[in-house]
Amino acid sequence: xxxxxxxxxxxxxxxxxxxxxxxxxxxxxxxxxxxxxxxxxxxxxxxxxxxxxxxxxxxxxxxxxxxxxxxxxxx
Length: 75
Known about the structure:
This protein is α+β, with helices and mostly antiparallel strands. It has helices at 11-22, 36-44, 65-69, and strands at 2-6, 27-31, 52-55, 58-61. Strand 3 (52-55) and strand 4 (58-61) form a beta hairpin. The model has no long low-confidence stretch (mean pLDDT 95). It comes from Vreelandella lionensis. Electron transport system for the ribonucleotide reductase system NrdEF.
Protein backbone atom coordinates (compact mmCIF):
# COMPACT_ATOMS: atom_id res chain seq x y z
CA UNK A 1 0.00 0.00 0.00
CA UNK A 2 1.21 3.46 -0.91
CA UNK A 3 0.49 6.26 1.56
CA UNK A 4 0.89 9.91 0.58
CA UNK A 5 0.98 12.52 3.33
CA UNK A 6 0.03 15.94 1.96
CA UNK A 7 -0.93 19.47 2.89
CA UNK A 8 -3.21 21.99 1.13
CA UNK A 9 -1.88 24.17 -1.70
CA UNK A 10 1.22 22.01 -2.19
CA UNK A 11 2.35 21.80 -5.85
CA UNK A 12 4.67 18.87 -5.14
CA UNK A 13 1.77 17.03 -3.44
CA UNK A 14 -0.45 17.55 -6.47
CA UNK A 15 2.32 16.43 -8.84
CA UNK A 16 2.96 13.29 -6.79
CA UNK A 17 -0.70 12.28 -6.76
CA UNK A 18 -1.04 13.03 -10.50
CA UNK A 19 1.97 10.83 -11.26
CA UNK A 20 0.57 7.98 -9.15
CA UNK A 21 -2.84 8.33 -10.82
CA UNK A 22 -1.25 8.37 -14.28
CA UNK A 23 0.52 5.09 -13.55
CA UNK A 24 -2.59 3.51 -12.06
CA UNK A 25 -1.02 3.14 -8.63
CA UNK A 26 -3.53 3.00 -5.78
CA UNK A 27 -2.72 5.09 -2.71
CA UNK A 28 -4.18 6.51 0.46
CA UNK A 29 -3.86 10.25 0.93
CA UNK A 30 -3.69 11.85 4.38
CA UNK A 31 -3.75 15.63 4.95
CA UNK A 32 -1.39 16.42 7.84
CA UNK A 33 -3.28 19.64 8.58
CA UNK A 34 -6.46 17.67 9.24
CA UNK A 35 -5.03 14.63 11.03
CA UNK A 36 -2.79 14.84 14.10
CA UNK A 37 -2.00 11.14 13.61
CA UNK A 38 -0.76 11.79 10.06
CA UNK A 39 1.40 14.69 11.24
CA UNK A 40 2.88 12.52 14.00
CA UNK A 41 3.64 9.75 11.49
CA UNK A 42 5.49 12.19 9.22
CA UNK A 43 7.47 13.67 12.11
CA UNK A 44 8.37 10.18 13.34
CA UNK A 45 9.94 9.51 9.93
CA UNK A 46 11.98 12.71 10.32
CA UNK A 47 10.26 14.83 7.67
CA UNK A 48 8.97 18.39 7.88
CA UNK A 49 8.16 19.01 4.20
CA UNK A 50 5.43 17.49 2.06
CA UNK A 51 4.59 15.27 0.36
CA UNK A 52 5.89 12.25 2.18
CA UNK A 53 5.37 8.96 0.37
CA UNK A 54 5.53 5.69 2.30
CA UNK A 55 5.67 2.31 0.56
CA UNK A 56 6.20 -0.53 2.99
CA UNK A 57 9.49 0.19 4.74
CA UNK A 58 10.64 2.72 2.10
CA UNK A 59 9.78 6.40 2.24
CA UNK A 60 10.76 9.69 0.67
CA UNK A 61 9.89 13.36 0.65
CA UNK A 62 9.06 15.74 -2.23
CA UNK A 63 8.00 14.98 -5.80
CA UNK A 64 10.21 12.10 -6.90
CA UNK A 65 9.13 10.81 -10.33
CA UNK A 66 12.22 8.58 -10.41
CA UNK A 67 11.02 6.71 -7.32
CA UNK A 68 7.39 6.66 -8.44
CA UNK A 69 8.61 5.00 -11.64
CA UNK A 70 10.02 2.10 -9.58
CA UNK A 71 6.58 1.34 -8.14
CA UNK A 72 5.31 -0.15 -11.37
CA UNK A 73 1.65 0.37 -12.06
CA UNK A 74 -0.43 -0.03 -15.19
CA UNK A 75 1.08 2.66 -17.41
